[in-house]
Amino acid sequence: MELKGKIAVVTGGTGVLGSNVSQGLLEAGATVVVVGSRQETVDKALAKLTPVAEAHGTTVTGFACNMLDHDAITELTEKVKNQFKRVDVLVNAAGGNVAGANIMDDMNVFDCDMEALKKVVDLNLWGTVYPCLSFGKIMAEQKSGSIINVSSMAAYDALSRVMGYSIAKEGVNALTKWLAQDFARKYGDKIRVNAIAPGFFIGEQNRKALLNEDGSLTERSHKVLNKTPMGRFGDISELNGIVRFLASDEASFVTGTIIPVDGGFSSFSGV
């Protein structure tokens, strides 16, 4: 998909998912603003992404910002607006699970760590709400733009262990649909809000849950793959196509959707 001339902001752009999406947007010709929680990780991401940008005749820049600090996000939004004059795409990739919030099979749900539970909900839900509203205001003023949130398979079914993460991602789905209708009705049909729902990809956060120390699959991995018709885990680069599509004008009549990228996991009962 051609994205030349578009300005794209990627929160969580220093993580595995966010940096990969940023690379995909750069390869499509977009100018990308990478946002991470720490300057150190932003600098590392820029070192990796700058050669990609140069190879495709575009640019990448980055900022450090706490996605749970509303004032800081407002300040960031003003910086981006002042530098680029507009924002065409917002990808909310900031998020992830918090280990302390997991409810393992041998645990009692009533003994869950409430602070960890709050942390994972804040990170994934409020960490999406704040940038949606801040950067969304620019889109409302210019009457165009595409917001792409990141949901999860945990919002489709009650996956064991990840109660807090599931609650948060269900909230992201509701936010996506609500903003889609509100923006379209009040600010025009060129503002779109959608979400992608990744299936199972092996990353640093879930590696121990899915792989044993010797590299073999865990019991949880076998359960996942038995419910995945394609019979494999996804490669993180397989998210890029749908993000580029939703960011592009080719998706001009697509809003309020949550699109699985899951090898069929969400469509199969396992029977």
Annotation keywords:
globular, Rossmann fold, seven-stranded parallel beta sheet, 7 strands, single chain, 271 residues, alpha/beta, 8 helices
Question: If you had to describe this structure to a student in words, what would you say it looks like?
Answer:
There is one protein chain. With 271 residues, the chain is of the alpha/beta class. It has a single domain (7-205, 236-267), classed as 3-Layer(aba) Sandwich (Rossmann fold), CATH 3.40.50. It has eight helices and seven strands. It has helices at residues 16-27, 39-55, 70-84, 114-142, 163-187, 207-210, 219-226, 240-247; strands spanning 7-11, 31-36, 60-64, 89-92, 145-150, 191-198, 258-261. The protein has a seven-stranded parallel β-sheet, sandwiched between helices. Helix 3 packs parallel to helix 4 (114-142) and helix 4 packs parallel to helix 5 (163-187). It starts with 6 loop residues before the first strand and ends in a 10-residue tail after the last strand. The mean pLDDT is 94.
In the residues, how many domains can be counted? Answer: 1
Uncertain stretches: none
| Basic shape | globular
SSE sequence, one letter per element: EHEHEHEHEHEHHHE
Label the CATH architecture: 3-Layer(aba) Sandwich
Based on DSSP secondary structure assignment, what is the total number of beta strands?
7
Percent of residues in helices comes to: 40-55%
Rounded to the nearest angstrom, the radius of gyration is: 18 Å
Mind telling me the CATH superfamily name?
A: NAD(P)-binding Rossmann-like Domain
Beta-strand percentage? 5-15%
Largest sheet: 7 strands, parallel
Number of helices: 8
- CATH T-level fold name: Rossmann fold
**Order of the strands making up the biggest sheet:** 3-2-1-4-5-6-7
Distance between the termini: 37 Å
In CATH, what is the class? Alpha Beta
Give the mean pLDDT: 94
